[in-house]
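The authors assume throughout that readers already know how a fold can be written as discrete tokens. The format is easy to grasp once an entry is in front of the reader. For illustration, here is how one protein appears when written out as sequence plus structure tokens:
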Amino acid sequence: MRSLALSAETEAILDRIRSYTWTLNLYGMSQSRALWLVRARTQTRINQAGIVPPYTNVYRRYVNELVRVFRTENGARLIATIELTIRKWVNFGFEPTLLEGLLSDCFLRFEQQGYAMPRTQSLVRQPKPRRRHGTYADSLTKGQAALRKSGTVAEQAELQKQGSEIASDIVRRLKPVLAARSITGRAFIPYYNFAQKLGKLYRNYGGKSLQIVAADLVDLYEAKQLDSDTLHAISQVLFDITI
């Protein structure tokens, strides 16, 4: 995995989180309220950095993700997720100094809200049950699924069908690779997500560009604690990409 050098200020924030057994009062707060706390401060930093649209919106999305991390994680898991979030956005090509500065803005503002008694488990968002009746085309026709402005129901339904076929093919070819490494059950899911994203890159890039973006994706999933040899095997066996 490629190393990511963090600034002294960011390391100080992570050390402060490590040293506290108590939890930020922000933990469990609504996303809208937590965002309100940091909106003005982070927007000022983005403006002062000379960022122009549409990139201002991208950095706002990064702030949104940071806020969600602070709301739903604590302790060692909070530290690991902060590092992963910064690594991901750096790999996307955004300015590390600004990313870490926005982290500092968020943490200092959240710390002003104080600390509560220790909590040992992270919040888990319960998925809402979905009821589906009929085909995907029926859902589009009834307005139960969003239809693209530039497309028709038939075209979008066909794209959805093609996507399902691609996903099924990835599952079929991925299973023996993971089975050979005794990776089954829930552990299958993150490797499948990796293979899905790599497949999308494979369909949109080629040559040296494909190798570069594939290497970035491998690095990101290594940061998520996935096995490096397995990620490289998936790249080689499923897509003939040698990194």
Notes: The mean pLDDT is 84. DSSP finds ten helices and two strands in the chain. The chain has two domains: 8-116, 136-239.
